[in-house]
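Final report, Chapter 2: Outcomes

The project's central promise was a pipeline that accepts a single protein chain and returns its three-dimensional structure in a standardized token representation, suitable for archiving and comparison. That pipeline is now operational. To close this chapter, we reproduce one record exactly as it appears in the project archive, with the input sequence first and the structure output second.
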Amino acid sequence: MKKKRNKPSKRKLSILKVIGLGILGLFTFFLLFIASINLGLWGKIPSKKELSNFQYQMASEVFTADSVLIGKYYLYDRQPVAFEEFPEHLKQALISIEDERFYDHSGIDFKSLIRVGLKTILMNDDSAGGGSTLTQQLAKNLYPRKERNQTNIVVDKIKEMIIAKRLEKIFNKDEILTNYLNTVSFGDNTFGIESAALKFYNTRTKDISTAQAATLVGMLKATYGYNPRLFPERSISRRNLVLRAMYGNNYISEEHVYQFTQEELKLDYREFDYNAGIAPYFREEVRKEMLRWVADLNNNGSDYNLYTSGLKIYTSLNYKMQKLAEGVMVEHMTKLQNDFEKSYGKNAPWIKDKKLMQKIAKRTSSYKKLQKTNLGHEQIIDSLYKDNRKRNFIDWQGDNEVTASTMDSIQHYTKFLNTGSLTIDPNNGDILVWIGGINFKQYKYDHISQSKRQVGSTFKPIVYTAALEQGVVPCSYFSAEEVEYDNLKGWSPGNSGDKDEAYLNYSMEEGLSNSVNTIAVKVLEKAGINNVLDMAKDMGIDEKLPNEASIALGTGEIKIIDLAQAYTSYVNNGKHIKPNLIKRITNNKDSILVEFKSNLSSEAAFSKETGQIMIEMMKSTVNSGTASRLRSTYGLKNDMAGKTGTTQNNKDAWFVALTPSLVHLTWVGLDQHEIGFSNTSIGQGANAALPMFGLWMKQLNQNKDFDNYTKRSFPKPSASVIDALNCDPVKRDGFFKRLFKNPNKKKTKKFNG
């Protein structure tokens, strides 16, 4: 007899029905949820057309003339590269650790999702990789998540899956890999493998080694936590995990794993920071030029953006020269700053002169900010003295964290000497070296392109050039006697030093090479002020200069770059050449957009003979005059001409050097015009500015790469020029003239220039 089966109770059937309906409801809800995301109810999902037309925002790159990458302009630091430039070991490292089944799935890898979930959650095995495919990660790279709450994470995940499926239908696997490696973030606003390779190893993607590739790919799990610069031990551990994953996928042998895991990181870190790196002032000037160029181009129908279009800017700068010049600047300015502070001692104006410091404080943003709160001057100054907090004080020994007030900070930075140093190739106008200041992070003001300073005796050659063009012969003699000009309110220019020159008469060459002020004014008188001003303009100085006799002593304020342009006339037979920063610009595919040609003036400001005479006179400045320490101290044997300059009260120190292939200018002084050097011996151009050239040229001479700049000679002057300069440098007044001249009484006359 068959045993009677018990039928399920109605209650059990009811529960099963409810569960079934619940599962069906959840499944239906989930399908509807996915459908709502796909329809865009949770935010727009890009269409296939939009995905196929996406474009990278690419950084523009700045190169030196010798093809060294020195800077970038970007919103996102990214330089896309082609698939062909990815080495096999890079692709293998990425696939091994991030998406082993990359070539087998169609955007979503459900098998790997389950595997990763089990291995990561149950077995705590982080070698399993991530749950998202590379295609999903690409979707996230292209359309970053905006919010981080739990609901949005689910929505974003599903969106990324939908986008991944669409991407797989548009692009093949190689294209997806290319797009991924060009968009993935490596932290610190660095996107794409090319930018990462340049930043961490100073090399291009195509040249990275297996160990380097494993290090960079290893960062992708946590760009901060596995940053090899910040956490080298963690980075090595992660790199080795990637290498073992490559072995597990049969991409490298066990011997290679051992070999690569023994390698040191050996970073060559180069951060393309706006404030740091080589030639920051130059890069900023290039940026300004580029913004103007892009604006002009776009006004004519183009659509370029300096920060996103991936332009390549090839400049005139010589990387090796710039590097040497910056090193020399640090060496010289460190010593000079020490001498400068010692010369003042405890009586330094930034220490003793409270009124001056308050005057300087009024120019600061801190003062102006408090002024907007309607506080009075005394209250503001009191607040600036009491505002004590931790600050980073920069000096030539490094950065120091100190507790100080705002006034302490103003006092600290007021005392620093600054500089501007520029070198141009006068044959083509190329700017080879550009040092706009001592520290771009602290002092943004560029002393080459922005600062106008009195140029002192460096203006005298222009005065002498005008005189020669007006018919004054080089062997004309001028008395060094000090004269008081009654029609110039008793102005009486004197000479530096204690030498008794009342009875001496100098030739033009001797007067210029020794920078005798009294003679410069008398040469100006012969040349005529208007003729001198016209000469300055014809030589490329557009600045409005004072129509006064003091112009002979360089009281006019001129930018370094404009004065350098004027001096190029002496190497180009009277024609000045416009300094040039940029040689050519290309698009991101290296197609040339524009090339800039040399811009030589059409007409000569002076004759070839006058130019030769001036070169010979300025050679004397180097051989026996105020710049003779180039020979005696620095041992330079190059064919050189030059001119030193020092302004009134030792506010500005200048030096100009000329060679057949270089025009070099250096200025040294303080940004606060009220403070100068304590004495002429420290503050004269020959001591404060000339060493920047002397030390630099000495290093150029030791490197054969620069022979084209260091071994050349000026053309031999013509016989007529040699004859015109063939006279005694100094003549002393005769007996009877001396008898009736009172050296203690200034000669008074009317200036007639």
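Archive annotation: Residues 21 and 27 are 10 Å apart (CA to CA).
This record, like all others produced under the grant, will remain available to the consortium after the project formally closes.
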